[in-house]
Please model this.
Amino acid sequence: MLKRVHYRSSYLPYLLVAPQIIITILFFIWPAAQALYQSFLLQDAFGLSTEFVWFDNFIELYDNPNYLNSFARTGFFSLAVASLSMGFALFFAALADRVIKGSHTYRTLLIIPYAVAPVLAGTLWLFLFNPTLGIITYFLDTFGIDWNHKLNSAQAMSLVILAAAWKQISYNFLFFIAAMHSIPKSLIEASAIDGAGPLHRFRTIIFPLISPTTFFLLVVNIIYAFFDTFGIIHAITAGGPGNSTEILVYKVYNDGFVGLDLGGSAAQSVILMFIVVVLTVVQFKYVERKVQY
Amino acid sequence: MIENRPLTTFVSHSVLIIGVTLIVFPIWIMFVAATHDALRLTQVPLPLLPGDQLWANLQTLFQGKEFGIPIHLSVFNSLIMALMISVGKISISVLAAFAIVYFDFRFRMFFFWMIFITLMLPVEVRILPTYEVVAHFNMLDSYWGLSIPLIASATATFMFRQTFLTIPDELMEASRIDGASPMRFFVDVVLPMSRTNIAALFVILFIYGWNQYLWPLLITTDPDMYTAVMSIKQMLESGESEPQWQLIMLTALIAMLPPVLVVVFMQKVFVKGLTDSEK
Model:
């Protein structure tokens, strides 16, 4: 990764990396180390005394059904968001790849949700599904469905999944369409000449060839659902009703800033960091072995 | 087009139009709600077509009495924050990447890994201790506090490193023979050659910065420092009375407009940057 021809060292390179490194140490490494340290501490309710308790905070989490439920919920939530969003994006991309006229317009409209902040997306869907006023609630009511995500936890979960998936469709769409464009036209033409119809071609050529992108997107979508959906949940349900939409990131915030359980919150942070590290490594390992055609 | 199948093409267009309509529908409803008055938005069913109260609602937001900060000030705060984050991130990353690719110096790999680690730690995860650091430096309620903790970025450094590796070695040799200093080479050759990457990264980072939510929510207590995106939550929680949906939706509309415009008008460079950088 170093250039074959390069400058010999002086004070200059240190000066060049200094801003990045200083900010990294102050706002990344130091806080992360703090979180790690705090995860071994137990603080009383008034912050007067702290005690070093080794892995007690982690053991407590392991014994806490609430936390384990939140874990399972996050897993379900992220898989649901990833599959819903990727499914629709793939479907749209396959269609948009076929048409020539208007594909630019479709793309322009489909990338808009990407630019909408999660909390705004949440607010938007909250308004659509507002139990008393919402326009979709009204439509659902005419079908005899009684919508109230403030009371019904399954509906609350569906709503946050819907909002989170909506926001991520743009991203997935762009990657799928880019992947489809990079498939050599000759492959598609050859199979068309052999008499394969569009559906058959999609199943036997396009889909297998974009599978690296699909896998990459799966990891990215899971990371997104784990960490970037805070605003959506904060706006729509604030973790409720009960704890039914409290995913891990939300729980870190809730326990730390609202519940002031610093040790427990820090331990949760550490576990989350571990998950991010694993996901990032998976992503990078995969990137190294990117399939070429 | 591989073959001519008018029916399939027709079906594709129809399905796409329905799909795109569904995706854009929430935004249309947001716009419609922003153009009605409070009374209309309490009557079920809610309108599907715009009304004539847009201007009146806008004026209410400009006064900003009810929610602590007038909309133009919160938009201004968002703009400053987004620009500081995007420009800051690009500047420190391009310098660091230049050093890592073009210089052989002690601890080079150590620094590289240190930057790599930041890729793995989203703000949400290290939020409490980061808050403490910022409080310690007295940066709460300031533009510095809003932006600096978010500007270290491994992604940008990686992308620039990737770009620099594709710049032919001969260019550097030539510039060295001509007696140019490393910084001269950086300014005259490396930066111009990274123009497209910088533009693409700017779009991505501007949106990232503009859409920050949890961080501004935590570190701003002074209403004068509220950003457009986070002020939404204040409005939703405005407490005793029913939420003023026409104002909330108008604020949301205004808060999403700048990033949407950036993404739509810089679409080409954005799409290229996104699909290149993260692959």
